[in-house]
Amino acid sequence: MASSTTRAASRPGAITARRTREERRVVRARAVTSGPETVPVAVALGDGRMADVFGALASERIVFLGQRIDENVALDACARLLALEAEDPEGEIRIWVNCVAGTQYCVTAILDMMEYVSCPISTVALGCVAGPPVMLVAAGDKGKRYGTQSARMVLSQPLGGLAGTSIEVKIQAKELNRNAKAQVGFIARYTGKDADELEAMMARDTYMGVQEAIDFGLLDHAL
């Protein structure tokens, strides 16, 4: 991944002006939406107060991806990345990933946004990360890609359901094949591995523990 300085200087519309305390507060408030529907937005504390989960994460510059990555999850993640960059263009953002599924188009939208923002980005694999979401962990800045002790990484081909007329099925099959090659290309870029080797590994699910993922080039360190 390109350095934060290079990313900031090479793209149009880079936000460089310092924001006032009030402006930063507004940006953060807009960034902290209701979040994914299956994750509680607030939790009760022992003294009866409610804690805003996503607000607390945003204040620590953390983006958490903990469910299937669809259009809503991707939109939320991209918005948070932009808001955090607006708040502090040089502050590090940490992305925690615990996903075993995701639409490739949605995953690559987040990847593009990770490349677009000027902030340094660290990633953490938690639980099990499989399929296209593996790309998100591997896309973190080199030296800042982590895995928890029990995390598992799974290299696999993108899934797709083919339906419709014979012509439509052929079109869908062609696009599915393109997605598979694109995923191989991303992983090869982040790991330095040969594309043919990756295609063979992804033809059948390949499971890795943290140390295996480090040795393979998907991660840099264990937490």
TrEMBL record:
InterPro entries: ClpP, ClpP/crotonase-like_dom_sf, ClpP/TepA. SUPFAM superfamilies: ClpP/crotonase. It comes from Ostreococcus tauri. One of its GO terms (molecular function) is ATP-dependent peptidase activity. The keyword Ribosomal protein does not apply. PANTHER family: ATP-DEPENDENT CLP PROTEASE PROTEOLYTIC SUBUNIT, ATP-DEPENDENT CLP PROTEASE PROTEOLYTIC SUBUNIT, MITOCHONDRIAL. It holds the Pfam family CLP_protease. Belongs to the peptidase S14 family. This is ATP-dependent Clp protease proteolytic subunit. Keywords: Hydrolase, Protease. GO terms for biological process: protein quality control for misfolded or incompletely synthesized proteins. GO terms for cellular component: endopeptidase Clp complex; plastid.
